[in-house]
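Moderator note: this is an archived Q&A kept for reference. The question asked for a predicted structure of one protein chain; the sequence and the answer are reproduced below.
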Amino acid sequence: GASGAIYGILATQLSELLVNWGIYRRPWLELGKLTVLMVGLFGVGLLPWIDNFAHIGGFIFGLLVSFTVVPHVNFNNRDRVAKLTVKVVSGVTAGVLFVVLFVVFYLVDIPVC
């Protein structure tokens, strides 16, 4: 199903909150709401026959890709450099992780899975 993508969208909301923390009037309240939602949804993944690995993978890739492609507001030059560094590191990490998982999926025979 599309649950991995839904967790990716949830991660995008989290990254948007973290990057634009200074814009929110009450960022701790927003973080609390997102945390309750994430804990509840990951808790549902503990039920039988639900693939929490897909949820976690979607969340990780959503977080990395959102840090890379979502535009962010810069407040000063130091903030711009920090956000650009996060973009580059996240993009490279997502690319490397994608290639490694692609190779593992198609070339490594894991009899347990």
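Archived answer notes: Residues 7 and 41 are 9 Å apart (CA to CA).
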